[in-house]
Input
Amino acid sequence: MSEVLNLQDKIKNELLDISGTISEIVDSYKQLHSPLVETQKNVPKATEQLDKIAEQTAAATHRMLDTAELITQREDEVIAGLNIIKEKINNKNYDEVIELCDDLALKASDNNNDAFVIMDALQFQDITSQQIDHAVVLLEELEKKLHRILAVLNGEDNKDLPEVSVSKKRAFDPHADLFTNKTNQHDIDSLFSKK
Amino acid sequence: MSDLKILAVDDSPTMRRIILNTLKRAGFTDVVEAVDGKDALAKMEVDTFNFVITDWNMPEMDGLTFVTTLREKDQYKTLPILMVTTRSVKDDILEAMKAGVNNYIVKPFTPETLKEKIDQVLAG
Output
């Protein structure tokens, strides 16, 4: 009878031990599951941000190239025009010289305006750098989660983990976009006019 | 030429240059730059400005905190403030209005829009 009781105790202890091990496994799984899910969610977000940056950078660069081409084309016309002026002065065709000067002044003014178009297009740098900051923060979060996963796998306690270092303090708008605004300027003006 | 003294606050050096050039073209030549709200407040301690253009997302002190801090001080209660930011979510705009900005421009902006908003704010 005592042997049976001993065996019962032994089985009970074994079961308790197994149950404890299962609880530990479940706890570890829970610790791993949340960062893994977040990691899985953040990878496409970071990728999407980087794709957006490449796309918007290309579009802004093309806009600047188009404008720079217009400027250089006009500059060629200005140089040619100045040569014609020289000829006309030699031939004393002063009325035509005045007309050409007006034309060249107009081209110079167009170049000035186009230089400002390029300057405006350069605002893309501020917008894409905010998108890059957003992607970097997402990647830094991933690094932290992976750090936690590795710690759990190594049997280390979460609270004993050293902090993952952050490269710099970042301030960005996660919705920053070169082409699409959530609210357009007209609607913003309406909000302020009601003030 | 305008005799307005403007403080332009933005953490992006590119944006500060663009704003400065745009203002210069519009006839506003007296412009001082600040890199964030904290830097702007320090500059305002030693200088007097008639107009402030500020970004929102900046390290150290963001634009919203900067505007709120200014509006808490008697001498800046009526100082014209224009916010120029990428934030275009309606709730953000309402929050900026509540903080006390006089007008709001979403980046990227055109030189015409900047000039128009400055004129509107000055006209009250």
The first strand of chain B starts at residue 5 and ends at 9. Strands of chain B lie at 5-9, 30-34, 51-54, 81-85, 103-106. The mean pLDDT of chain B is 95. The radius of gyration of chain B is 13 Å.
